[in-house]
Design a protein that fits this description.
199 residues, alpha/beta, Double Stranded RNA Binding Domain, 2 domains, seven-stranded mixed β-sheet, 3 helices, 7 strands, 23% strand
Length: 199
């Protein structure tokens, strides 16, 4: 009997907390822009394709693994961010990719930030079974103006192995993951009744 009572109370608390969170974001105006900041990465979380990295010149070493990992990581971070922006623009939102060097739009904005947890290049020489994989986590925040405090409206944790579609190299995998992240941003926008503009 006590267990049933405690379970009922816990369910009611969860429902009321969800209702409060929805009421807090329901009063927020539609953002003028969606800012996608370049995803952070951890060099230690990058697994390189062991079949690449050789040199075309006999007797000279190939690109050092650390340098290759940095290059792969930068490319993946860019491709994920670019795919998010492209998908959000298709849905009718003004979205920009921010690399931290250019000024970001003022006013109300959704800000998408995140980090790549894991990058695995797979093995590109195994045609049809390359098996690259990526995972990322992040947040979607709402900002009322430049310098204003932000309010968290959503977060996500996604793995390319759980996203629809397969095949291709790490770039194609990054694009698929970017589209999945964009979908989670669109879901948050729809929950708050922020439709995209008609194109």
């Amino acid at each position: 009997m006590r267990l049933q009572f405690r379970t009922s109370v816990a369910v009611l608390l969860c429902l009321s907390a969800t209702a409060c969170a929805e009421q807090q974001t329901a009063a927020l105006g539609r953002p003028n822009a969606i800012i996608v900041r370049e995803f952070a990465l951890n060099q230690a979380a990058i697994t390189l394709d062991p079949t690449f990295g050789f040199s075309l010149y006999r007797g000279t070493p190939g690109v050092p693994p650390r340098q290759r990992a940095a290059s792969v990581g930068r490319a993946v971070a860019f491709n994920v961010g670019d795919a998010i922006v492209e998908q959000l623009r298709r849905a009718g939102y003004d979205a920009v990719l921010s690399d931290g060097t250019t000024p970001e739009p003022d006013g109300r904005a959704l800000i998408v930030t995140g980090a790549l947890r894991n990058i695995n290049e797979g093995q590109r020489r195994r045609v049809g079974a390359e098996n690259p994989s990526l995972s990322a986590y992040g947040e979607v925040d709402y900002r009322t103006g430049s310098g204003a405090a932000v309010q968290r409206i959503s977060n996500f944790a996604l793995d390319s192995r759980q996203v629809a579609g397969s095949g291709g190299d790490v770039k194609a995998t990054a694009v698929r993951l970017g589209h999945a992240i964009a979908q989670s941003v669109l879901d948050a926008a729809r929950r708050n009744n922020w439709p995209g503009a008609a194109r």
